[in-house]
Each structure stands twice: as C-alpha cells, then as structure tokens.
Amino acid sequence: MLQEINFDGIIGPSHNYAGLSLGNLASASHAGDASFPRAAALQGLGKMRHNLALGLAQGFLLPLPRPNPRFLSAIGADGSEDRRLLAAAWSASSMWTANAATVSPAADTADGRCHLTAANLVTMPHRSQEWPDTLRQLRLAFADAAHFALHDAVPGCFGDEGAANHMRMGTSHAAPGLELFVYGTSGGAFPARQHEQASRAVARLHRLDPARVLFIEQNPAAIAAGAFHNDVVAVANERVLFTHELAFADPAGTYAVIRAALPEAEIVEVPASAVSLADAIKSYLFNAQLLTLPGGEMALVIPLEAWEHPRVRAWLDGMLASNGPIRRVLPVDVRQSMANGGGPACLRLRVVADPATVDPRFMLDAAKADRIEAVITAHWPETIAPAEIGSEGLAAKVIAARLALLEALDLGELA
Question: In the annotation, is 413 catalytic?
C-alpha cells in the first residue's frame, strides 16, 4: 500500500561543529564548540522511535564514509593547508537527508514510478562531495526498478539542494499531486543555494506534468535572514501549506496559483507580526515534520526550541485553539542537530511508496532501533573537540564505528 515513509539520516560518528555552512546562522554561531556525536545520534534515533510509535512508516539512511580522503585528494590537499578543507572531509552533514534527493511519487510521474534525483549540493564544498555515495545508498534502498527510477545529480553548474526546496500538495499522498519547487535568486550576503534551472531539470527528469508543477521564488529577505533552504520557512503536507508570511517573493500570487491548481488547499500563514522572520529562523518553527497520522489528523513535529520560544509557543497555542487543519503539535529533542543548523525536517527524506518495495534493511522497527542504539552507545565518540579533527586516533574510531553499524544492519556492501 502506498504511504509516506520518512527516511531519517542516522547522525554519523564524526558529527562536529566546524561552522562550514555559510548562511546557516545556527551552524555559524556554534563553530568551534565541542560536539557530542553519541548524544546527537541517540537524539536522532529518538525522533525516529517517536514517529514509529505514532504508527508511521519509518526508514533510515546511513552515515557516509568519513573522513573522506577522496575529497582532499581530488583537490590536491591533505588538510594541512586549510583546517576548513580538513573539516569538510570529516563533515557528518549527510545526516540531513532532506538534502539527499528530490522525490516525486509514482502518482505524479509519466511512467508511474517514484523518481529520485540525488542533489548535487555544489554551493557548499563540504556537501558537494556527498551525492555519489548518497546515490549509491539510494540505489540499494530503492533497487526495485519496477517501482523506482533513480537519477544522477544535475550538472554542477546548477545548484540543487534536494527536497529542502521542494514541497508537494494533494488530496492524499497516493493521489496525483501538485509539486512546488522553490528557488532563490539573491541572498545578499548569503548565497541562494537552489537554482531555478536545477529545479526545472529535476521536474523534466521526473517526467512531471507541467500543469501540476509550480516554480516559486523564495523571498530574498528570507535568504538574507538565514533561511538558507525553503524548509526553514515553509512546509507542506497533503492539502496543507504551513508557511511564514515572508517565505515567498510573491506570497499572494503563490497562494492564488496553488488554490487554482488545488481547490482543496488550506494555507496556514504565520504573520510576521506574530512571529518575526528572525524568531522563525532561530526556533526552526517551520523546519518541522507536518505529518498525517494513521487516524487522519495532521500533526506538526517541532524542535523543543520552537516549543520553548515564548512568541512561537503563543502562536502555536492559538493555532491549536482555532480548530484549524493542524490538530497536534509534538515537540522532540534534536538539540545537537539544531546547534549545527538542522531541525526535524532537515533530518528526513519523504518518499511515497509501498514499504514492501523498499529494501527491508532500510526500514526501521523496534528491534532494529535497539540494534542501532547499541552500536551508537558502544562506538560513537562521546565528544569531539575541534582540535581533534584530523587526528589518526579519532579517524580510526570514526571509521570503526560506521563499520560496526554496517555489520549490525547487514549492509556491508556500503563499506
């Protein structure tokens, strides 16, 4: 049966705070802090367990090989020239699987298969190295060619950040939907990471009906304020778009086009007078998972930072009292990820599919979660100080930790 499956990234053993992501205010503000990889991975697993307990289908993707000597070798470096290059080779940023790929469900595509295009992530050097290993993993998880079509990343002249700048709306996950591609044109001091031509290329590769595709410009002011991805200021699920007033360059025009294409659409707009753009970005209110629960009601899974923010909490309380389409708000603790600039939405890739068509090794259940937890507890470093990045001892520990996880999950071919 077709349903939405959230594939969360298991936070890798090299999780650290190097501050490599220009425009990501949380990442920059924690640059140079000590990180806690074990706590981070257990928090991420806790979010997966939380959603599994809600009765939702839950999958996972694995950390990529780190440190990555191929990255340094390709640029003729060994890391001694620039600590930022060394840190890039150690980056655990693949944990944010919203950037792994863009996904179009079978109901939207001309050939009736679910299409996935790996994101090239070329704007940030530490992320640009990810997509070949990510695609290798996706090709394993979604190997059933009768149900899935996988594509290489679009050429690097067009920046593509994956599902973090893509939304889908429809009457249900299984019904034909309206796909929304959000691109940037100017970020002032910060780069606009999603290029319009990358979005258009993905739509063509996925063989989408042009009448059911929208290309929407992100508000340059939102990028300049730190909304480096659209999912920092907007999220959609089935008929509902949950968005900040300043998310899009032309909000009124965007809403009108959405309503014309999907008359059932409900737009929940948070006014800037209630929650400023700065508050939205600091709390990651919109970097949430907007989910349809098995009973049919919608829930918003938010970071604790949003729940604890007084102005955001006041708005959420008012929303719940208004009897709108979002009926539950569920806070989760992902503080280690949040400190590096990624909330609940960053940690997951949404795939509409029949779970039976997915390689079962990538699907989570309680017993598998216990196995993952045991490996993390036994092998993930408790803490990483900035000066440790590049040390042979830590490298050996990080490599061994990932290999232990692959062994526990019978995924040795990803070694």
Answer: no
What are the beta bridge partners of residue 307?
A: none
346 assigned to active site: yes
Tell me which of 4, 130, 161, 305 is the catalytic residue.
Answer: 161
CA dist 88 and 316 (Å) reads 37
Quickly state the pLDDT bin for 80 (edges 50, 70, 90). Answer: confident
Domain at 3-414, CATH class: alpha beta
User: With contact defined as beta carbons under 8 Å apart, do 335 and 43 qualify?
Assistant: yes
166, containing H or E segment:
strand 166-169
Q: Which sequence spans correspond to the domains of the chain?
A: 3-414
Active-site position among 50, 173, 206, 229:
229
Cis ω for the linkage preceding 325 (within 30 of 0): no
- Rg value, the chain, Cα: 20
Catalytic one of 126, 238, 245, 346: 346
Q: Is 305 a catalytic residue?
A: no
Half-sphere exposure of 292 (CA within 13 A, CB side): 18
Q: For tokens 């909000």, what's the residue?
A: 251
- Whether this model's pTM surpasses 0.85: yes
Banded model confidence at residue 22, pLDDT cuts 50, 70, 90: low
Q: Measure CA of the first residue to CA of the last residue in the chain; give whole Å.
A: 32
